[in-house]
Sequence to fold (662 residues):
Amino acid sequence: MSATIKDIAKIAGVSHMTVSRALNGSDTVTNETRDKVLKIAAELNYRPNLQARSLVMNRKYSIGVVFSTLSSATAPSFMQACLNGIYQTLAKDYNLVVKDLERGLEHFNLSRVDGVIFVSQQESDDSFIDFALAQGTKLVVINRRVERESLINVTADEIGGAASAVRFLIEHNYQRIALINGPAKIQSSIDRQQGYQQALLDNNISIVADLIKDGKFSIQGGYDAMKVILHESRDGQVPDAVFCSNDEMAFGALKAINEVGLKVPSEIAIIGFNDSDICQFTSPALSTVKKPIEEMARFGAEALFALINQEVIDNPVQQLATELVIRASVR
Amino acid sequence: MSATIKDIAKIAGVSHMTVSRALNGSDTVTNETRDKVLKIAAELNYRPNLQARSLVMNRKYSIGVVFSTLSSATAPSFMQACLNGIYQTLAKDYNLVVKDLERGLEHFNLSRVDGVIFVSQQESDDSFIDFALAQGTKLVVINRRVERESLINVTADEIGGAASAVRFLIEHNYQRIALINGPAKIQSSIDRQQGYQQALLDNNISIVADLIKDGKFSIQGGYDAMKVILHESRDGQVPDAVFCSNDEMAFGALKAINEVGLKVPSEIAIIGFNDSDICQFTSPALSTVKKPIEEMARFGAEALFALINQEVIDNPVQQLATELVIRASVR
DNA sequence: TTGAAAGCGCTAACAA
DNA sequence: TTGTTAGCGCTTTCAA
Fold:
């Protein structure tokens, strides 16, 4: 067993309360006493028992980091960027407890954490949000736009980003623009499709249902979807551009395009979303919409910290800008 | 504040001990009492205060999941596979607390967890391992071979995997085989280089230092390293094959090869390591050594569970097999 | 400036 | 079968 304040007290010849005060930097302790206590604490390698403190203070020194799913449906690069952003901000003060919503929440005891940062990806997450809010959980939702009374919500401009990509294609004389989208239930899919459609409609281009496919947010899914698009349009017109709802799908689509011998970008252009590491290294390099994932996570974590510490939150609802990055995959 | 056993006791008209017993399934409680208690507990949405229980039982209901680094030096797909494998096994019983070693350990209070599963990547991790072991922490180390008295250690056969890849190249008449390796401090780099050298020596092929470059385990690094190799060997002989210590670097190297107009696999072959998602979708598809990352994590998590629960560990030291996967990037 | 007492929510040990 | 008491390690409150 590790040392307790009583052990220190015994050695120092003071009461355990004096030790507690010295350790917590109270100014009602003489310097002499404090020094003695701190020295003994260091010698014994004293570590406070946070569960005990927790019981008295009703603080948990942990925060929950909740994902819609931890499995492959969440892109690894996205997950890492989120975790990393949160870790940088909060790891000094809190244990970060990672959870997913997929395997039920019976085992997620919200009372074990001081707050939750929720990386939300789909509308069905709402039930968890409402549940957590009803319990009075300090909650910050990032990634997905959620409207609740005074809920802190940090997102990126998905609609605007998608629209800017498609608008760029239109302005560069691409006419027949396909969309390979993520799963319909994911909010990012919905938003990016909305941006896509808006850009088309703004330019009086009609929306063709056959040019919109589900690529499951995965490389394989993007590949499969592109295959279908190319196959279906064999006797009709092949699209001259594809906007993909993430970079992974764009990468898969690129493979499918290669396989049928079409040239990128001269015969078909392609744009992805997120600006993940692979973009600069596909052949040709992949144009994309840059999404500030790590920054989003960091802002969310900072807001949660402020919320827990009863500070004023300047911008409870933030939407970070996305940015079109043009590379060789469009002409 | 949420309900406590005393609240339930008051309503049920019994002592808080009876409530505790009923809730914990003791058989010294009449069915009638138990039912009454459980019903009230459900009505009050009772959740046990685990910090309080923790104080008495000296259990933490949390385990630490420690990475050498959470930042980009750890491949996202690797990190996700590890987390996911551990989560599947342990999330029902424990909160998973994610940590990295990079930003120091002052804030990692080992007494807050019942055990640690350490995804170790480099030799400098040893100091943490020894520190944790000295504290009596229940510890399982995965990914990197570590020899300590009765330490549980789950790894993959990195050396054998690398050797099998290089041996395959030699058997298929590749003569001049380069190595793009990860950072020198990472154990996987050391192991894979050892496998590479062993295969060469076994076949009486001398090791050429100029053909071994550091690709930093990243796409960019692999690209840069390949550039250097191709540039340096302009007037000499260009290698006819490259073995890369992970798939990301192989992906970057592929780009560099493309840029100088060399054909894969007719002019130069390439093999990666891990079998991550991208391999099937590069052009040409990337041969690789498959490493069972998620399985490794799961086995480690199971062993930690057994260790915490004082069960017998069948195989404290496991080395999982790796497997050569040949695709179009070699002829 | 320091100490004694009480209690956070829970379980172990013993008594009834 | 149930209840009483004590105590896990800490902080708050009040007294000295």
